[in-house]
Amino acid sequence: MGGVTSSMAAKFAFFPPNPPSYKLITDEATGLLLLDPFPHRENVEILKLPTRRGTEIVAVYVRYPMATSTLLYSHGNAADIGQMYELFIELSIHLRVNLMGYDYSGYGQSSGKPSEHNTYADIEAAYKCLEENYGAKQEEIILYGQSVGSGPTLDLAAHLPRLRAVVLHSPILSGLRVMYPVKRTYWFDIYKNIDKIPLVKCPVLVIHGTSDEVVDCSHGKQLWELCQEKYEPLWLKGGNHCDLELYPEYIRHLKKFVSTVEKPPSQRHSSRRSIDRPEHSRRSTDCFEAPRKSTDRREKPRRSTDKSEKLKNYEYKFNNDDKLAKLRISIDQMERSRRSVEYQEKSRRSIDQQFEKARKSVDWLDRIRAV
């Protein structure tokens, strides 16, 4: 039963266009690979990339002058890069990004057969090409996964902690969950995005149509809920599985997302908080920290006030000391006056005693004469 279910999921997941929408030719004059029937463009390169599983995939690279981001696009299950070519050009122009799209093994003119693990090797080969051939850094790359393309996109994103961002366009929770409303993950399921999305550390944008008849909108909503770093999602009212690019909101929201993730992290977080009004209100309240600190800077005036207080205390002490000094002087004067009075009293007593002695001596003389 498990093998049958796995086979059913695999058949649902992979529907390469048959025949492919393009042919791969080599220009005799330049030796460049071209996509027939599309005319050659100076800013577009067609490549063949080997994968670690022994297949060779076809990729298209669109260069945008002075771009600071590179979009790595993993398309849906019933398309190839011939059908996506014009969209790739338009996205590069409107988003001002370099863009690489590729065909999975067994899609378009890529060799091999489509399988879950082949798609993982396919996106790894495309990513490696961006790093080695075009000098793109992990921090500059945005992974874009549409429908089944969300599988290889999230598998790679879970292993790249410094990615700039991820876009999930009509994503799936898992292959089995598209067909059955299962509540748990089974070993035979494919593209277990529900288990991988919590491991993605960069900002994630989810875009999904509310009238999607292939992958219900609940898949996108549940994946968004499980994101570590959520970005404002885009739920396109009435949008189906393959027509979201026709909505004006699609390109507008995507441009806003790219411009946001291209900002430094500090500015990016403030922009994100501005979307979240309660958070913004709390942060604006926190901004009152600055005036509080400026009040703290008034320490110097307060200290000058403290100085005047000290001066007052000093003056008070000085005045008191002066008063005490004056009081001491007056006490000393009183003491000296008292001593002077006592001295005069002693002098007076001494004179009186002398007069008394003299009177007694006179009386003694009178008594002698009388004898």
UniProtKB/TrEMBL annotation:
Record-annotated Serine aminopeptidase S33 domain positions: 70-175
Family annotation (Pfam families): Hydrolase_4 (PF12146)
Top-level taxon of origin: Eukaryota
Record region (Disordered): 261-311
Basic and acidic residues: compositionally biased ranges: 273-311
InterPro entries, A to Z: AB_hydrolase_fold, Hydrolase_4
Name of protein: Serine aminopeptidase S33 domain-containing protein
Organism: Nyssa sinensis
